[in-house]
Amino acid sequence: MKTWFITGASRGFGALVVDRALARGDAVVATARSPRAVVDRFGEQPNLLALALDVTDENQVGAAVEAAITRFGRIDVLLNNAGFGLMGAVEEASAAEVEAVYRTNVFGLLNVTRGVLPHMRAARSGRVLNISSIGGYRGAAGFGVYSSTKFAVEGISEALHAELAPLGIHVTVVEPGYFRTDFLDASSLSVSPVIIDDYVATAGRVRSVATGLNHAQPGDPAKLAQVLVDFADAANPPVRLPLGSDTVAAIEAKHLGDAAILAQWRTVSISTDFDGS
Ligand code: NDP
Predict the structure, then answer these.
(1) Distance CA 183, CA 113 (A)
(2) Residue 277 clears pLDDT 90, i.e. is over it
(3) Closest ligand 1 atom, CA of 9?
(4) What span, in angstroms and rounded, lies between the C-alpha atoms of 8 and 19?
(5) Topology adopted by domain 3-247
(6) Quick one: which atom of ligand 1 is closest to the CA of 54?
(7) How many angstroms separate the CA atoms of 261 and 156, rounded?
(8) pLDDT tens for each residue of 52-96
(9) Rounded distance, CA 33 to CA 173, Å?
(10) Catalytic residue, candidates 102, 137, 146, 178
């Protein structure tokens, strides 16, 4: 039996992982801005602790982690899941919109990670699953700022992987493609109200495609949740876990593109070292 600590457990991936972990007999600390949503969905259960946690509030993180340890004695799996998207061309996004999405997707993830890691280090064991995105592997028009938050999650996760592996803690960054949650819905997605006509063929096109894709995405979030719960038991977990055929295609396309850049520009790329080094 494992103890999970999950952020953003009110709906979407977070709630579905709560469901699958409880079904397996694990203990779950399901945190949400509104823990009422967790209780309404799952009822009172001995293995479930629903707690208030807005990941942008570091004080709330401390209280939630202490309550988790008091109730279950340990945290075996941290699922950093809370997050939201920001749609619009990079130039269309205001400073306030950029700051808000970083506050949750990056600084919030760091707040929770700092709160949980002392307990995992003391135990010399644990798993950290950081939810990134297809956009955390390759940037694309219309989601540039959001992608940049997930690129940050990728970099943080790769470094954590290197720092924590010697201490018995495994870190994996999870890269979902488009999955059928509220992610693209007005209830979650932030959309820059500024529209600059020059971007109509790039970010503007993505705005209409994304609206049409809302609740019609190819990825099944229930399958993703089951994969994550099973993955928590995997021996030698990899540093990244792409999920969804769209993510796999995007990664393969990026690899091909980068290989072509290296092939064409290698001479220039390696020409900048000091002579003789
Ligand atoms: P949903 O919109 O369905 O769920 C998002 C969850 O994050 C909600 O529980 C929401 O809580 C919570 N949340 C948002 N901000 C905060 C905050 N400050 N503190 C605590 N909780 C917060 O989307 P998903 O389930 O799809 O999204 C989960 C993660 O997956 C996100 O990190 C997202 O970026 C990522 N992702 C999703 C993809 C998809 O296609 N679905 C693709 C790639 C990545 P509340 O109910 O209070 O709003």
Answers:
(1) 23
(2) no
(3) 9
(4) 13
(5) Rossmann fold (3.40.50)
(6) 19
(7) 26
(8) 999 999 999 999 999 999 999 999 999 999 999 999 999 999 999
(9) 23
(10) 146
Q: Is 125 a known active-site residue? A: no
Respond yes or no: is residue 132 known to be catalytic: yes
User: Strand pairing partners for 169?
Assistant: 126
Which DSSP string corresponds to 128-159?
Answer: EEEE--GGGTS--TT-HHHHHHHHHHHHHHHH
Residue nearest to atom 37 of ligand 1 (CA): 183
State how far the alpha carbon of 63 is from the alpha carbons of 32, 54, 92, 116, 238, in Å.
13, 11, 37, 11, 31
d(CA 58, CA 115): 8
Pocket-forming residues, ligand 1, beta carbon under 6 Å: 7-8, 10-14, 32-34, 54-56, 81-85, 104, 108, 131, 133, 176, 178-179, 181-183, 188, 217
Per-residue pLDDT at 164:
98
Q: What is the pLDDT of residue 65?
A: 98
CA–CA dist 16, 26 (Å, integer): 14
**What would the pLDDT profile of 197-224 be if each residue is shown by its tens digit?**
999 999 999 999 999 999 999 999 999 9
- Nearest ligand 1 atom to the CA of 16 is 25
Mean pLDDT of the chain: 98
Cα–Cα dist 100/84, whole Å:
10
Q: At what angle do helices 109-123 and 58-72 cross, to 10 degrees?
A: 30
End-to-end CA distance of the chain: 53
Structure tokens, 179: 């999955």
Hey, whose CA ends up nearest to atom 17 of ligand 1? 54
CA distance 174 to 91: 28
